[in-house]
């Protein structure tokens, strides 16, 4: 999904998906002709008790789309909009919505042409991305202009049009596709950064001549949490070519407790990925069209409590492990750990990498702020009949922002670790850790005189996906 959202692949609709969607569409029409169906023959929200008269049926859906396309604030990032379109296409192809199957090709064409519906930031609370998808529907109908790829402010005159049937309007917009798309991107990026973190921590451990005892198999078997063991195994693999004599009997927590703190982040991210993947591929529609039973079921599968709570947990775990990264950065500025001048400076009066700690802690402060659980919110809407929300949309947005801040903090640690090893005249002996050092040293500026380090931080952040690949290849 992330590759489709980021424009790396051409999107095509499988014939099986078309068939599933077509079968659901036919059943939805049959059932709506025989009994009340929410949103098709009735109003929505508190208006669910109001029947739509047959002579008003053609206009009802269009009014619904127009009234709900009312988001506000700045537009969300283009890749999140593309993720939304990809998720909604996949959901409709799963065969539970009852939306006209012709919309599948229209959505695929939009993705392949690089067109975007305008999607403002504010408008959803985890019970349906109604404003975002209503805006998309109006673009499909030709009432609203598409934006060009890249999120340009100006619209484009032409795009793949599609006559969305009035009865399908609620079925099309009743989805959390935007929230799930953003969650999927955030979790994908986070898992990559968490892998890169292990490599960066191993470089720091090597730079301060830390002890490998905390990573010993006997230690991990004594308390065998899966994530903790995974971290320790990875660090041992990275250090397999080294035979360092530890400089201390016990290192600070940033090294000694790294498996115990980073392990929960790995487990939380893996659970979040499983949760989001399950949601993206589910027929989470309300009403749900049951093709086998030739009926519809009114239900609560629109609620994304699972996703919001999983992401809330991820951010709490992320703050914990990022705090250790900032702590390790502190040791890399300290002569008693590196054997170098304070702050790895060129002269006694120089500042060296001093500012990296400020940058890292600034980013850490944002992750701490963003770790507040979105699920603690509450809402009572639509005259009291929609009396709960999980705010998974806000949780996804907070996770996106937290991942961005984490990338910066981890980049600061990488700059410091590589600089320390260069000044010490040491390089890893071989294996994946040497590959990681060589990759980083080839990109990061070797100069040690006082100068702006902003480009160093940015370059280090860009290196992190490559470090993650090195770890994954070593573990394969």
Automatic annotation (TrEMBL):
Superkingdom assignment: Bacteria
GO molecular function: ammonia-lyase activity
Keywords of this entry: Lyase
Pfam families, A to Z: Lyase_aromatic
Transmembrane region(s): none
Name listed for the protein in its UniProt record: Histidine ammonia-lyase
Organism, as annotated: Actinomadura rubrobrunea
Gene this protein is translated from: hutH
């Amino acid at each position: 999904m992330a590759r489709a959202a980021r424009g790396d692949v051409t999107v095509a609709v499988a014939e099986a998906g078309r068939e599933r969607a077509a079968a659901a569409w036919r059943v939805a029409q049959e059932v709506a002709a025989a009994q009340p169906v929410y949103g098709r023959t009735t109003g929505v929200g508190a208006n669910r008790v109001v029947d739509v008269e047959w002579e008003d049926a053609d206009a009802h859906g269009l009014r619904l789309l127009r009234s709900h396309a009312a988001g506000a604030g700045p537009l969300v990032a283009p890749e999140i909009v593309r993720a939304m379109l990809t998720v909604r296409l996949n959901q409709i192809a799963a065969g539970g919505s009852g939306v006209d199957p012709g919309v599948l090709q229209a959505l695929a064409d939009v993705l392949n042409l690089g067109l975007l519906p305008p999607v403002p930031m504010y408008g959803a609370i985890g019970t349906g991305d109604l404003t975002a998808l209503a805006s998309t529907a109006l673009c499909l109908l030709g009432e609203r202009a598409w934006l060009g790829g890249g999120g340009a402010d100006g619209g484009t005159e032409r795009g793949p049009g599609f006559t969305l049937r009035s009865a399908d309007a609620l079925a099309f917009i009743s989805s959390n596709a935007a929230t799930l798309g953003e969650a999927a991107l955030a979790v994908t990026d986070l898992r990559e950064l968490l892998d890169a973190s292990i490599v960066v921590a191993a470089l720091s451990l090597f730079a301060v001549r830390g002890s490998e005892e905390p990573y010993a198999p006997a230690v991990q078997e004594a308390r065998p949490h899966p994530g903790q063991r995974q971290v320790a195994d990875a660090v041992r693999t990275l250090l397999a070519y080294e035979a360092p004599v530890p400089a201390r009997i016990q290192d600070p927590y940033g090294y000694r407790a790294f498996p115990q703190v980073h392990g929960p982040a790995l487990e939380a991210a893996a659970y979040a990925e499983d949760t989001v993947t399950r949601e993206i591929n589910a027929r989470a529609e309300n009403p749900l069209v049951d093709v086998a039973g030739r009926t519809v079921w009114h239900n609560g599968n629109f609620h994304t409590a699972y996703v919001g709570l999983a992401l809330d947990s991820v951010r709490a775990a992320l703050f914990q492990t990022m705090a250790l990264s900032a702590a390790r950065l502190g040791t890399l500025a300290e002569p008693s750990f590196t054997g170098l001048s304070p702050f790895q400076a060129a002269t006694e009066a120089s500042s060296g990498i001093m500012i990296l700690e400020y940058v890292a802690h600034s980013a850490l402060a944002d992750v701490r702020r963003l770790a507040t659980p979105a699920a603690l919110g509450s809402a009572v809407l639509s005259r009291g009949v929609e009396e709960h929300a999980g705010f998974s949309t806000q949780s996804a947005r907070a996770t996106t922002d937290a991942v961005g801040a984490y990338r910066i903090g981890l980049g600061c640690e990488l700059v410091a670790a590589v600089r320390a090893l260069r000044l010490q005249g040491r390089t890893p002996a071989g294996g994946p850790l040497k590959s990681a050092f060589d990759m980083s040293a080839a990109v990061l500026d070797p100069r040690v005189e006082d100068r702006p380090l902003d480009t160093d931080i940015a370059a280090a952040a860009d290196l992190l996906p490559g470090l993650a690949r090195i770890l994954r290849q070593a573990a394969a």
